[in-house]
Design a protein that fits this description.
The model has no long low-confidence stretch (mean pLDDT 79). The chain has helices at 6-24, 34-38, 44-64, 70-74, 85-92, and strands at 80-82, 97-106, 112-120, 135-138, 141-145, 159-161. It contains 5 helices and 6 strands; from the N terminus they run ααααβαβββββ.
Length: 173
């Protein structure tokens, strides 16, 4: 009777598990089309000029308005908003999403904010759930919702600057 060693098979199994883990939980660059991205890229010096011009125009607008507190009370303009990468991934992971449209909005606190929605390949806003949808897979049924579907979703609630601004940024000195 020929006896095979358990150790080589065990090592192969461990190696296979590590490779599968590395494949599914890898970190690194998010794939993208470099040529398509170039359409939206500007020099950083231009970005500095744009943000400086915005701050100066805001000060001038406040100076032009008779009621100096009007903008802060009714139209609070941020210098910027920061969003984590997960909201962009969630928006772009919608079936058929080809991009993200960002609208300017005015929230309950009278703060100007950025509202993001996925956009399809024809440039149409997409409605539906972004996160939180729990779908169960049952053979013969296209999809089953574990929870009743709720209203459509959009992205917002960024971290506002001047409340949470970067330290030492050339864009917000």
């Amino acid at each position: 009777m020929k006896r095979t060693s358990f150790l080589p098979w065990f090592l192969v199994l461990i190696l296979l598990i590590l490779l599968i883990y590395a494949w599914f939980f890898r970190r690194g660059e998010i794939p993208y089309n470099r040529e398509a991205a170039k359409e939206h890229v500007i020099p950083f010096t231009t970005a500095i000029d744009y943000t400086k011009a915005y701050r100066e125009a805001r000060v001038e607008l406040q100076r032009q308005i008779q009621d100096t507190g009007y903008l802060d009370r009714n139209f609070n303009l941020p210098a910027a908003e920061m969003f984590n990468r997960d909201i962009f991934a969630a928006l772009l992971n919608r079936d058929g999403a080809a991009g993200i449209r960002i609208y300017l909005g005015l929230n309950d606190k009278k703060e100007v904010c950025f509202v993001m929605v996925p956009v399809d390949g024809k440039g149409n806003d997409m409605r539906g759930r972004i996160v939180g949808e729990q779908v169960a897979s049952i053979p013969g049924i296209s999809s089953v919702y574990a929870l009743p579907p709720s209203e459509d979703e959009a992205g917002e609630k960024g971290h506002r600057c001047p409340y949470t601004c970067p330290v030492g940024s050339d864009l917000y000195p």
